[in-house]
Amino acid sequence: MAYEAKKYDGLVGMEGFSDTLLKNHFTLYQGYVTNTNKAADTLAAMAKDARIGTPEYAELKRRFGWEFNGMRMHEYYFTNLKKGGSALAKESALYKKIVSDFGSYENWEKDFRAVGAMRGIGWAVLYYDILGERLFNMWINEHDAGHPAGCKPKIVMDVFEHAYMTDYGLKRADYINAFFKNLSWEKAAEKFEKSAKAGR
Ligand SMILES: [Fe+2]
Asked: Measured in angstroms, how far is the CA atom of residue 179 from the centroid of ligand 1?
């Protein structure tokens, strides 16, 4: 079954994000969905035609992670945004875990912002390692590589240039401020509780 691009039109009008920037970002995301479907269909057709030993098959197989993760990472990103954002409740399991793993919420935020401000293009991700029961702020470069196995993303921030340059030029820190203003902590806390409870 083909993947369908999800709609995030409810984000249009979010403070700190122009309509142009958001609409271009949605179009870019839709391209990942289209290409994920194309790559999956082509790979299936090649397997059927006994072309799995070919360099073309191998190259497209390598490419699949780029398209798939581009689709999924954008879904995480748009889903964890909400007009005006929402606060992280101090009684939530996520808040308590952040304090326990980072010493304080402030330490965590400082670290996450620093990861997001790193030079280069990529993603800042708050990952939860289910087996080790630990939170990590991670830098994911190009999204086909570098994800920690078995960990679940709880907060995803896009820091590819297309995510902010239209509105902020090189001032990435200002974009990160806008991201935090619209971050839905409620959603992140809910996702964390599900993972912690289910162990997955
Ligand atoms: Fe993006």
From this structure: 13
Quote the CA–CA distance of 31 and 145 in Å, as a whole number.
19
pTM score of the predicted model: 0.96
Ligand 1 centroid–CA 48 distance in Å is 33
Q: Work out the number of other CB atoms within 10 angstroms of the CB of residue 89.
A: 12
* pLDDT tens-digit series, residues 63-117: 999 999 999 999 999 999 999 999 999 999 999 999 999 999 999 999 999 999 9
How many whole angstroms from 153 Cα to the centroid of ligand 1? 16
Centre of ligand 1 from the C-alpha of residue 177, in Å? 17
In angstroms, the CA 26 to CA 75 distance is 10
Phi, psi of 54 (to 5 degrees): -90, 155
